[in-house]
Design a protein that fits this description.
alpha+beta; 3-stranded antiparallel sheet; 47% helix; 14% strand
């Protein structure tokens, strides 16, 4: 059986790809995961304010733009959706718009979601960003 120092020396000599494979293999064999545990916020001390008790809201980096209602200008909304979603044909855009409420784009940056929202609202649609 290898000593701890021998194992550490062997790991030091491994490439990043080999280390990733090693981690996967250990996870499978031992039935564990190498994912970092989620930190739990401690309860505030006695006399703490309600504001201090509320956990800080996490900053979001990915957003989903949802078409809630197409509004009165269906054709304009279809045109805007075709412009905003590359590779979407007329038929697909029409079906997407008519299936509201539905997600238009998911997991996008805040600035892109704001651009999409302003364009679709300009066409008369009701939009929600989550």
């Amino acid at each position: 059986m290898a000593t701890k120092d021998e194992i550490v020396s062997a790991i030091e000599g491994m490439s990043v790809l080999d280390l990733a494979d090693l981690v996967k293999e250990l996870e499978q064999r031992l039935g564990v995961t190498a994912a970092a545990p989620v930190a739990v916020a401690a309860a505030p001390a006695a006399g703490g304010t309600a504001e201090a008790a509320a956990p800080a809201e996490e900053e979001k980096f990915e957003f989903t733009v949802t078409l809630k209602d197409i509004g009165p200008n269906k054709i304009e909304v279809i045109k805007a959706v075709r412009e905003l979603v590359p590779g979407l044909g007329l038929k697909e855009a029409k079906e997407l718009v008519e299936s509201a409420p539905t997600a238009i784009k998911e997991n996008i940056a805040k600035d892109e979601s704001d651009t999409i929202k302003s364009k679709l609202e300009g066409a008369g649609a009701v939009i929600d960003i989550t």
